[in-house]
Design a protein that fits this description.
Helix content: 40-55%
Shape: globular
Number of strands: 6
Largest sheet: 6 strands, parallel
CATH topology: Rossmann fold
CATH superfamily: P-loop containing nucleotide triphosphate hydrolases
Structural class: alpha/beta
């Protein structure tokens, strides 16, 4: 545990220029993502309020491990673009993949992700594109020794009772079928007792 925290602090300063986490809770959640998802290959559920800094909780672990990366599923292109622009401003390799992404960029992403030592750290992708045959073929070629996980941002969008309901989110349970050994991180700030069935809807198992 102490070694993990020390590694987190080192990357926090090196990559983001920060000397400390926003809170003890953020630090603990980030540690759990690194140890439980990235190392132990377990699913993780993060339900924290807006402003908590949830993105850092899945970004820092990937940055702390060589050749690891995250596939981040986001409901809007604007949200994905904002995150990618921020990461690139920190000299962190990140890309967007959506219906408007040129084939030339998709080719660059494909060539990198299937390498033994990929340089891309974050790929922000739309739920529709994540389930496309083209993308699935690429992921099938990812080196088995490379560590990565899926991040489902705004996970509450899977529930019909949510005002942010996205029908395409309901088919994200296929991620578990397609990639049974890849951890899934489900993130939300609005999950309530009425929508906790999203565990079953997303086919999340053995969740921390």
């Amino acid at each position: 545990m102490a070694a993990t925290i020390q590694l987190m602090y080192s990357e926090l300063q090196n990559k983001f220029g920060l000397t400390d986490f926003k809170s003890e809770s953020q630090k603990e959640v980030t540690k759990h993502v690194y140890e439980d998802a990235l190392i132990e290959q377990r699913d993780v559920f993060i339900n924290m309020p807006s402003g908590f800094g949830k993105s850092l909780c899945f970004q820092l672990p990937v940055l702390s491990k060589d050749y690891a990366f995250a596939i981040v599923i986001t409901p809007t292109i604007a949200l994905a673009t904002h995150q990618v622009d921020y990461l690139r401003s920190k000299n962190i390799m990140a890309y967007c993949w959506n219906a408007y992404t040129p084939n030339s960029i998709k080719y660059i992403i494909k060539k990198d992700l299937i390498k033994k030592k990929p340089k891309i750290k974050f790929l922000y992708i739309s739920p529709e594109q994540c389930q496309s045959l083209h993308f699935q073929v690429i992921m099938a070629k990812v080196n088995l020794r490379v560590s990565y996980y899926f991040v489902i941002d705004e996970a509450h969008c899977v529930s019909p009772s949510s005002h942010n309901f996205r029908k395409c989110y309901q088919s994200l349970d296929r991620i578990r079928t397609k990639y049974p050994h890849v951890p899934i991180l489900a993130m939300s700030s609005t999950i309530t007792k009425k929508v906790t069935l999203f565990y079953n809807q997303l086919n999340i198992v053995n969740c921390v």
